Amino acid sequence: MKKGIGFMLALLLVFLLIVSGNAAPKKDTSWEEIAKRGYFVLGLDDSFPPMGFRDDKGQIVGFDIDVAKAVCQRLGIELKLQPINWDAKEQELNTKNIDCIWNGLTITPERKKNVLFTKPYMDNRQVIVVRADSGLASLSALAGKTLGLQAGSSAKDALNNVPDFEASLANVIEFDENMTALMDLELGGLDAVLMDEIVARYYIQQRNKNFMVLDEALASEEYGIGFRKNDQALMEKFQNTLIAMAEDGTLAAISKAWFGEDITVINR
Amino acid sequence: MFIFEYFAPLLKQVILLGTGALTTLRIFFLTLLFSLPLGLLIALARMAPQKWLSAPVKLFILIMRGTPLILQLIFFYFAPSAILPEGLRFTLPRFSAAVLAFSLNYAAYFAEIYRGGIESIPQGQYEAAAVLGFTKSQTFFRIILPQVIKRILPPVSNEVITLVKDSALITVLGISELFRVARNEANRLFSTSPLFIAGLFYLFMNWIVTKLFDAAEKKLSYYR
Questions:
Q1: Chain B residue with minimal CA distance to A13?
Q2: Are A63 and A196 contained in the same domain?
Q3: Which whole-number Å values give the CA distances from A253 to A246, A267, B121, in the listed order?
Q4: Where residue A232 sits, what CATH number does that domain have?
Q5: Which of A43, A59, B32, B100 minimizes the number of CB atoms within 10 Å of its CB?
Q6: Residues of B engaging A, defined by a Cβ cutoff of 8 Å
Q7: Residue B65 to residues A227, B28, B29, B111, B118, Cα–Cα distance (Å)
Q8: Mean pLDDT of chain A
Q9: Inter-chain contact A96–B81, Cβ cutoff 8 Å?
Q10: B29 CB contacts (<8 Å, ≥6 apart)?
Q11: Measured between alpha carbons, how far is residue A97 from residues A12, A71, B205 in Å?
């Protein structure tokens, strides 16, 4: 048995040596590679309306999807949509299974270490959704209550950044998807859900639910498109196309179709 | 007319879930195709008197049964491009990685079921076969294995039924199968009914599996 453990340790050591070996810096051909390949893979959590989600035919639609389609058309490449598990988004990106994360991805200092972001294209806040008849109207009223949020989302970071509020809660429950949390809120299993304002407002409006967004937000944040750390050229190509689309009004038109007004910020 | 209005969306949902169920069935059949024969090989290697053969197989079974299947799925998909040296890195297609993880995992469980079955056959049968002039492989395939299959049907049916339900784990690789489609529908409609419809799908599939195993058991009980 001892022999076996020694063997496993040796194996582990070999793995570590391989992993730690640094590759020499190379010329950035990220855009050329995509252009040559002819398609671009966008990774998303397909249950994130209105940014990216499935319609009643099972097709992936959304604001981000419409913008991505327009960008790829201008760049003359095909857009491929790849649903991913949101918890594994950084691995999916770094193992080149997807070329970007474009799905209402909040720019956080933590994520910036692993992901190369474009300029922000939309503002967002982390807000608290409660049942309209619950009588809860402020953060302090949530003391001793149960809060739900999406695992691996920036809502979790926002909550961690307000330790006093987090400590005042009785319970924090993490769900795979925002929508499951909202369902639980409706059933009374949760007292509040912490989530992206853009998603919350769209949902309440679309579903005509008896929910309410608290005025007090937990954090202000921005959405960006996440690329691989080394893909500077690819990121700039997309960013410049987005800016061009903002200048000629294409982006505003897509925003109006989804939100009724232009709420994009990339050109500001 | 009223009935039509009520059933049309339901029918649409059933069709949508049906397309998801196709992925579930694909992973199900491919896993069985690979894991049932592989399990037998692993069982034989596990019982081999040569230590160099049985020891690594024992370790393999320990790992495959001792770690969560969901972790194995993630491992086979992400690890090749994360831990291999530059130049050797590759990524399996999502679905292939899922089939690989499922096949190896289920083969480990099947192997132990086969071993239980094989070891339950009395030694005297081998001796009798040898006396009658059967070769080793003839003894195994013509005398031992048919009896083993008969004995292991109930535990195998357990695993096969679990496999139908475990297939829902592949969503961890972003593959859209029955349960994922149902969850998306539930989110879109803000209703749990698609989840329960998915439950009926699983129940129906396992009803068929159960019936098939019943039929197989009846067919093989020729000495009773």
A1: B83
A2: no
A3: 9, 14, 75
A4: 3.40.190.10
A5: A59
A6: 12, 16, 19, 55, 59, 74, 78, 81-86, 91, 94, 171-174, 176, 181, 183-188, 190, 192
A7: 37, 19, 21, 11, 20
A8: 87
A9: yes
A10: none
A11: 25, 20, 32
Structure confidence by residue, pLDDT tens digits, B18-36 = 999 999 999 999 999 999 9
Q: How many domains does chain B have?
A: 1
> Which chain A residue shows the shortest CA-CA distance from B171?
A85
Average pLDDT in the B156-174 region? 94
Could you tell me if B175 and B141 are in contact, meaning their C-beta atoms sit under 8 angstroms apart? no
Q: Is A173 within 8 Å of A146 (Cβ atoms)?
A: yes
Predicted confidence (pLDDT) at residue B87 exceeds the cutoff of 80: no
Instruction: Give the minimum alpha-carbon distance from A40 to chain B in angstroms, rounded to a whole number.
Output: 16
The Cα–Cα gap between B176 and B178 comes to: 7
Number of domains in chain A: 2
Q: Mean per-residue pLDDT for B94-123?
A: 96
Cβ neighbours of residue A183 closer than 8 Å, sequence gap 6 or more = B186, B190, B192
d(CA A120, CA A117): 8
The residues, ordered by sequence, that sit 6+ positions from A143 with a Cβ below 8 Å of its Cβ are: A168, A169
Q: Within 10 Å of residue B156's Cβ, how many Cβ atoms?
A: 21
Nearest-Cα distance to chain B for A121, in Å, is 25
Query: Per-residue confidence at A26, pLDDT binned at 50, 70, 90?
Result: low
CB B204 within 8 A of CB B23: no
In a domain, A241, yes or no: yes
Domain that holds residue A72: 29-123+222-259
Asked if residue A246 lies in contact with residue A55, where contact means CB atoms within 8 angstroms, the answer is no
Under an 8 A CB cutoff, do A4 and B59 touch?
yes
* Residues A157-171, mean pLDDT to the nearest whole number: 92
